[in-house]
Fold F-box domain-containing protein.
Amino acid sequence: MSVDALIQELALPNPCVTESFDTPYSKYSNMNYSAPGQTQIHAIGEIISQRQAQLSDVTRQLASAQAAVTRIQDLQRRLLEKRKHIVASMEAHQAFISCIRRLPPEILGEIFIQCLPPHPHIKPSSRAAPLLLTRICRGWRQVAFSTPRLWCSLELWWPRLPRIQQESQFYHHWLSRARSCPLSLAVDASCYRRDVRAYEVTESLQPYTSQVARLLLAFDEVTAPELLLKDVPMLEHLTLRGWLGHWHPRRISITQPQPRLRSLTIISKPFSPGVLSFFDPGWANLTRVEVSLLSRPAESNLGVFWTLLQLCPNLEDFIFSSVQEHNDAPTCPLLQHPKLSSLDVVVVSNVGCLVKSLILPNLRHLKISSVNPIPATWRQEEFKAFLSLSRCPLETLKIVDRMQVSVEEDWAEYTALIPTLKHLDLGSAMVGPV
C-alpha cells in the first residue's frame, strides 16, 4: 500500500470498525455447551476457515500500514529538516537587511557604551563588554575598536614577574584604544608578597597619566606612587588605598599650575595629622573628601578630622569614619567652615567633642553615627550649642545610635531645635518628613 493509498484509506470510513463477527454459536462461548453434532461441526469449521482467511488479510493490511507509517515518519523527518534549513536561510537573509546592520557606527558605538558594566572601573573579561563585543562579528569588532569611550575605564592588577610583560602589553593595547578620552583607572600597585618590581609597574602607565581623570591607587611601603601622581593635569577624582604612614618622610605632590582635583577618598589604617603634610593634592581646591579607616583608632584622631577641615577651605562634602576622642584629649580650637554643606561622620566615643568646637553656617545635611550610646544630655547641651553657633539651614538629619531606641520625645525635641528641618531619621520607625 502506497502512502497516498494509506492516506485515502484513513480518510474513508473503515468497514472493519462496524463489521460484526458474531455467529449463531457466539452466545455459547461462555456456557457449558454439550458436544455439537456433525452438521454443527461442519458449520463451525467453515467459520474458523473464514476467520483464518480474514486474519491473513488483516495481517497483510497491518504490515502494509506499518510500512506506510514508517515511510510517512521518514517523510515527516525529511520535511522537518527541510523546514529547519528554510527557516535558517530566511533568518540569515533577514539579518542582512536588519535595522541593526544599517545603524551608523556612531549609534552602534553608543549602544555598546550602554552595555558596559556598571562598575566605575572595568575588570577585563571575555564574557562582558567591551571584550565580548569584539567576538561577535568583524563589523562589531571594528566598531568596538573605533569607539574610544569603551576603553577609557580599566582595573589593573599585576601578576607575578614571569607574566608582567604580557599583562603590560595587554593594558597598553586596551588604553591606547581610548585615544584622547579621559581615563578612569584602578591600579593595584601594592606588592603584598608578589615578586613585582614597583617601578616597572608604575613606569608602564606613564604614557597615560596625563589622561587620567579618575584614579584609584592601592599602594604599600615599596610602591612608588609618585610615578603615578605626577603629571596628572586631568585628575579630578583620586582614591588612595593603603597606609599613608608608608609615605613618610617622602613628600608627594600631584599639584599642577591649575589643578582639577576636586574629590579625594582615603582608605587607610589610622594615621596622625602630621602625615597629611607629606601629601599635597591641592587641598584648597577639594570640594569632597572621604576618609575611611580600616581599623578603629586606638588613640584620639580628632586632630586629623580638624586638620582636614582646615586644609580644605572650599570643602562642601565631608565623610569621615571614624573619629575617636578621649575626654582627657586636648580641646580643639573653635573652627568655622563657611562652605561645608554635608557632613557624614562615624564617632567611636565622646560625640560631644565633635560638634562643640565646630561652626558650620552652610550645613544642610548631617549624619552622625555613634558606636557607643549618645548621652541623653548631648542634644540639649553640645548639639544645641552647635546649632546656636552655626545658625545653619539644616534640612536633613540622621542620628544612628546603635545602643538606644529613639522615642517620640526625641523626634519632637529635634524638630523643635531645628525649624528648617525637612527630613529626620532617628532609626527604627522614626524616619520621615518633618
